[in-house]
Amino acid sequence: MTQRIHDFLLRRREEGRDTEPCLVVDLDVVRENYQTFAKTLPDTRVFYAVKANPAPEVLRLLASLGSCFDTATVQEAEMALAAGATPDRVSFGNTIKKERDIARAYALGIRLFAVDCKEEVEKIARAAPGAKVFARILYDCAGAEWPLSRKFGCAPEMAVEVLDHAQRLGLEAYGVSFHVGSQQRNVKAWDRALASAAAIFRDCAERGISLKMVNMGGGFPTKYLKDVPTVRSYGMAIFRALRKHFGNRIPETIIEPGRGMVGNAGIIETEVVLISKKSQKEGELRWVYLDIGKFGGLAETMDESIRYQIRSPRDGADVEPVVLAGPTCDSADVMYEKSPYPLPVSLEIGDKLLIDGTGAYTSTYSSVAFNGLPPLKTYHI
Ligand SMILES: *Cc1c(COP(=O)(O)O)cnc(C)c1O
């Protein structure tokens, strides 16, 4: 935890404002993360994935540092523009868009769109004539802790057809994109995807279409319980893969970090509401209920995928595994049960816990008023 977050939480507690859970994000850490990405891949443009944390403070900071923005909706695009980005620094990266939203984005000046099928290309040709499009390809996401399924992207051979179709309809077939899966702990994951991208470049060139850009997506991890490689090692592996597959004709490149940009900048403070057992049987686990759960911002504990680091004021004491659950009346609101979580035996009701690495994919996942609970309170300092 940074000194600034520590001091902020202390003051909040002293002023008696610590009645609800909260997320505190240290903007200095976001700034450092941006600079690390920019320095590590100096020839690559950074498009921050807005969905990871769309707080205006984060967007304004990144806009001022020169970041571009990957947006999933017109609303996110408007937020990036309001934060100071110019339309040429905003992409519409969702492959699933309403035609009227494409037209709205085009009216805002946005000219860079993702596609993964001919049907979407046709919408863009009608609503955003002359725009640049890049084709998203499928990737199996092995090695990622939050894999992305088959929802986005098409087979590489089909991407060639999709780009060809775009060019025929008067769009600019601009490039290829992929996402290696979020929280990708294997630095080599980009290699295979870049091999596919290079093959698409060659196939398109044979058809007289000269692609210019590879969008290498997000996937850069945040440290949760397990250690993760440094951004520098990702940068070196990516650069080597670019050289290997594109030789000395490396195209324009983009990365879209979300989690890796903001994850480690945030900490959630939560309170222990109840500690109890389900029976008096020998070996029965304790249940620890917090005032935040899956519906309060910890949605990524779904299937116990993301395993956060949780700290307590009693760290250093003996620990034993507990089942960790949220406060709501929904039985799915259990974070860790299949793999119980070690917490101090001396933990007590009313203790405050700190959940590390929660700057990404938390605040916007918290429900509006499920069980009457307010959305997660957030502070960007
Ligand atoms: C969500 C998303 C990202 C960000 O992914 P991270 O794993 O958080 O870095 C990047 N690009 C696209 C298209 C996305 O949908």
TrEMBL record:
Q: Write the record's keywords in alphabetical order, separated by commas.
A: Lyase, Pyridoxal phosphate
Q: Which residues cross the membrane?
A: none
Its Gene Ontology cellular component terms are: cytoplasm
Where does this protein act, in terms of pathway? Amine and polyamine biosynthesis; putrescine biosynthesis via L-ornithine pathway; putrescine from L-ornithine: step 1/1
Query: Which Pfam families does the entry link to?
Result: Orn_Arg_deC_N
- Per the record, residues carrying N6-(pyridoxal phosphate)lysine are K51
Gene Ontology MF term list: ornithine decarboxylase activity
For activity, the cofactor(s) needed are: pyridoxal 5'-phosphate
Domain Orn/DAP/Arg decarboxylase 2 N-terminal per the UniProt entry, residue ranges? 29-262
InterPro entries recorded: Ala_racemase/Decarboxylase_C, De-COase2_N, De-COase2_pyr-phos_BS, Orn/DAP/Arg_de-COase, Orn_de-COase, PLP-binding_barrel
Q: Which GO terms describe its biological process?
A: putrescine biosynthetic process from arginine, via ornithine
Record EC number? 4.1.1.17
Active site per database record: C329
Its EC top class is: lyase
Keyword Lyase attributed: yes
Asked whether the keyword Acetylation is assigned, the reply is: no
What family is this?
Answer: Belongs to the Orn/Lys/Arg decarboxylase class-II family.
Protein name according to UniProt? ornithine decarboxylase
Q: Which gene encodes it?
A: ldc
